[in-house]
TrEMBL record:
Residues 1-93 form the PPM-type phosphatase domain. Pfam families: PP2C (PF00481). Residues 1-20 are annotated as: Disordered. Gene3D superfamilies: PPM-type phosphatase domain. This is PPM-type phosphatase domain-containing protein. Residues 1-17 have a biased composition (Pro residues).
Amino acid sequence: PTPLPLQVPSRPNPNPHPQIINPPFAAAQARFVVIGSDGLWDQLSPAEAVSLASHFSSRGADYAAEELVEAALGRWRRVGRFHDDITAVVVKLPAPRASA
């Protein structure tokens, strides 16, 4: 799967407003959506998140999300003692219907 482009903030800044974008993608090819907090995206690139979620999605969306959090947490631990809050949600999308 091709990772979707994400907006990256220009500087760290607590902001209560989420960044929302509507990137163009082929919906027929999308198998899942990865939603995450900055604690996830500060440590994993979109391509890495898609790769991990794809690898673990056969075991369920919850399991894939847990693995994303564990991967980010492992990287946070390597760079220092403290880490940001990490949230990940993997939403499996229904298979597209065949056209008649």
